[in-house]
Specification:
Number of domains: 2
Radius of gyration: 23 Å
Distance between the termini: 46 Å
Strand content: under 5%
Structural class: mainly alpha
Number of helices: 4
Shape: flat
Length: 141
């Protein structure tokens, strides 16, 4: 284990930036610990009910999801893009921003934007910007 030497100010910054991430990692560790203790630590694996295997599978999936999100959040916080979750998150955020842009503006078009309902966001944005010009609302506002 490597523990970096830090100042109190650095530790405060680190804790503020990644504290909630590690709370989720601890939650995942606790779930894994419960699975181990309840089903493998003192129990014999052959004693596990079929219904319990479904629950164990669900818990392992949830733990994986918590860890995936924690790693993604860490990478986004420190500005690194090596983890696969980063691209998916950024892509999802861009899609959400595009959805918000279209939804904030389509009601300003005649017929509540019925003409753009079947278009992709990219196609709809062109029409919105063309028709609304300066009246367009961006997701930031």
């Amino acid at each position: 284990m490597y523990i970096a030497k830090t100042t109190a100010e650095e530790r405060l910054t680190i804790g503020s930036a990644v504290g909630t991430i590690f709370t989720n990692i601890e939650r995942a560790k606790n779930l894994l610990n419960d699975i181990w203790l309840n089903y493998f630590g003192q129990a014999k694996p052959e004693d596990i009910d079929k219904s319990d295997t479904i629950m164990i599978g669900d818990l392992i999936y949830i733990v994986g999801d918590i860890l995936h999100n924690a790693i993604t959040e860490y990478c986004l916080t420190v500005g690194e893009d090596w983890y696969s979750g980063v691209d998916a998150y950024i892509s999802g955020a861009e899609t959400a921003r595009s959805n918000i842009f279209v939804e904030k503006n389509r009601f300003k078009l005649p017929g509540n934007g019925s003409e753009i309902m079947s278009l992709t966001n990219e196609q709809a944005a062109v029409i919105i910007k063309d028709r609304l010009g300066e009246k367009v609302v961006t997701p930031d506002k």
